[in-house]
Amino acid sequence: MSESIALDRAAASSRATTLRARVLDWLSQYAAFGAIVVTLLVAAVMAPAFFSPGNIRAVLIQTAILGIVVLGQTVALIARGLDMSVSATMTFAAVLVGESASSGNFGLLAAQLAILVVCVGLANGLLVTWRQVPPFVATFALLIVVDGARLAYTHGQSANSAPEWLAQIGSGSLAGVPIPVLIWLALLAILFVALALTSWGRWLYAVGSNRESARHAGIPVNAVVMSTFFVTALAAMGAGVLQAGYVGYIDNTLGANYGLNSMAAAIIGGVAFTGGRGGVIGSAMGALLLTILVNLLVVMGLDLFWQRIVQGAVLVIAVVIQGLRSRAEQS
Amino acid sequence: MTAVPGTIGGTAGSDRALRWMRRNGAALLIYAIVVVFVVVASILSPTFRDVSNLMDVLRQSTVLGLVTIGQLFVMLAGGIDMSVGMIARVVGLGIAVAMTTLGVPPLAAIPLALLAGTLIGLANGVVVARFSAQPFIATLGMMGILYGVALAISNGPTKMVPIVMLSIYDTSFGPVPAAVIAMAVIWALAWWILRATRFGRGIYAVGGSPKVARLAGLGGERIIMATYAISGLVSAAGGIFLIARSGVGNPNMAIGLEFQSIVAAAIGGISLYGGRGSVVGALGAVILISVISNLFDLFQISAYYQDLTLGLIVVLAVAIHRKDGAR
């Protein structure tokens, strides 16, 4: 009698835990989407100016630039890595682009950008795979080195304007859609397919879920991890170039905060920091959410510091939702 | 015959020495590097070997030294604290504004500042321990929030703080600055806590294996929260000390402290995976970083190359540091 009550209780409590786990799981996947809807409702009531065509266009372009960095960050996170050095790579790429405006030497620019991506990707990748340095330490060290290298290279002077052709790409439109948005959507589609259909995509998830069993299954774990850092560096380089074109000038803070924001976007978009989970669609939602939030603060005329507070808070909330989910799954 | 026991004894002794060397290899290496740097710099530069300059090297290491203690408590318990620099900045700016614009007397402002830092650290601890949030990302978020708070407090240099505050930095007993003595005491205290107290053993246990520590009823969550609170406390102390050094709050103060403290702890032999490492090595790394930045200034290395040089040194250091079978 009492035994069956105890069993009922156990069953009920396990139902409760699975329900809790399911809610948290659902929340971690669709939090960004839900938050976008809520934010837009708030915007409609409190700041109708948000919906002016010019502002929507700005939001979409800014989302695209952040979104490109986020694509790389998503790939790294799926393989249980992350890349703090993206902001430094972005700024350095933009500085190189700015120099090409005066020199007009595109061959040199292409070579410089390629060297930048290869050096950063290779250094991060080697530290993480060969020397087994935790990704956040390795990429943080590279953040300092790449920012330092830029400072040594420019002697602090990087206020430059973007070349004309790039400004046209950055602020131009094709069939009414801003070009950066088209580039972002194209890259999004490519990565979506790559993650879903190629063996590289499957390997990423396997490596992120369980490195040891991936190794036993014959997956080239080190090569896969290495590839993620080339993807993040490449994405950051592209975003830096586009950002330079969009804002029209280059300064030392061009890439600032993209490290934190790209992680916040990916994680609020359901990419698990424990690896092996999430995808580019969710993290694109995260990028859209962060950009809308920050833009709304600007439209509402709030002080600049609120942007930082909101960006940090989104990251904390995202990581708490995921932490609670993984705890609910374990129990 | 008589030689045999001797040989055995000798082998056992050198075995023990070898094992000791292996266990403390990282710390020994750090101090060896410090000695090499100091000797070479002393030969090259009469200014460097001046006692007052050497004392200044130690005094300038105080901020990093304080923050690194918090960082190593957190790291030993298997976490990481990215918000230390911003805690120092928020507290430093806050105390400067409180003492100048609001007119709060230093004797009231200092305890309040320390309390504020501890509470921010505790918030980190709650998010990490209670909500199982990944420490790096959670404290990175806190760093972002605090960056905003710092901008909200002041986006320009503050007014000059009361002159009493400067004595925290300036007071000396003979050639030895009071700040250096205070730091030595605090490091000794940290060493004792980790070595001799139940709390200290708990930290190593939690860092070594969080799940086991939780199951064994060691109060893993509370220990983790305490390490973050300590980190917040010492970071706040670092912020106060920065104000005592410069006399004004600056919205760019305490930049890079999170990274330097993690690097100091890591090259000092604290495992980035928790549960391993010693206080002594981390202190050596703090002194090493201070020596290097003193040499930068002494040999007038352009500010444009300092970041790059420090970054490359760090990359070398973490590349040599290897995940030593901790887990």
Question: Helices and strands in order, then pairings?
Answer:
The complex is a heterodimer of chains A (331) and B (327).
Chain A: H1 2-46, H2 53-78, H3 86-103, H4 106-129, H5 135-154, E1 160-161, H6 164-171, E2 173-174, E3 177-178, H7 179-197, H8 199-209, H9 211-216, H10 221-247, E4 249-250, H11 258-268, H12 280-299, H13 305-330
Antiparallel strand pairs in A: 1-4, 2-3
Helix pairs in contact in A: 1-12, 1-13, 2-7, 2-10, 2-11, 2-12, 3-4, 3-5, 3-10, 4-5, 4-10, 6-10, 7-8, 11-12, 11-13, 12-13
Chain B: H1 3-23, H2 25-44, H3 46-49, H4 51-60, H5 62-76, H6 84-100, H7 106-129, H8 135-153, H9 163-170, E1 172-173, E2 176-177, H10 178-196, H11 198-208, H12 210-215, H13 220-246, H14 257-267, H15 279-298, H16 303-320
Antiparallel strand pairs in B: 1-2
Helix pairs in contact in B: 2-15, 5-10, 5-13, 5-14, 5-15, 6-7, 6-8, 6-13, 7-13, 9-13, 10-11, 11-13, 14-15
Tags for this model:
heterodimer, A: 331 residues, ABC transporter involved in vitamin B12 uptake, BtuC, two-stranded antiparallel ribbon, 13 helices, B: mainly alpha, two-stranded antiparallel sheet, 16 helices
Number of helices of chain A: 13
| Portion in helices of chain B | over 70%
Strand residue percentage of chain B = under 5%
Low-confidence stretches of chain B: 1-10
What is the level 1 CATH name of chain A?
Answer: Mainly Alpha
Derived from helix and strand composition plus strand pairing, the structural class of chain B reads: mainly alpha
Strand content of chain A: under 5%
Q: Return the CATH architecture of chain A.
A: Orthogonal Bundle
Q: Strand-and-helix sequence of chain A, N→C?
A: HHHHHEHEEHHHHEHHH
Biggest pleated sheet of chain B? 2 strands, antiparallel
Distance between the termini of chain B: 45 Å
- Major sheet description of chain A: 2 strands, antiparallel
Shape of chain A: globular
Give Rg of chain B in angstroms.
21 Å
Number of strand elements of chain A: 4
Nearest-angstrom radius of gyration of chain A? 21 Å
| Assembly form of the protein | heterodimer
Largest interchain contact: A-B, 51 and 47 residues
Q: How do the strands of the widest beta sheet of chain B line up side by side?
A: 1-2
Shape of chain B: globular
Structural domains of chain A: how many: 1
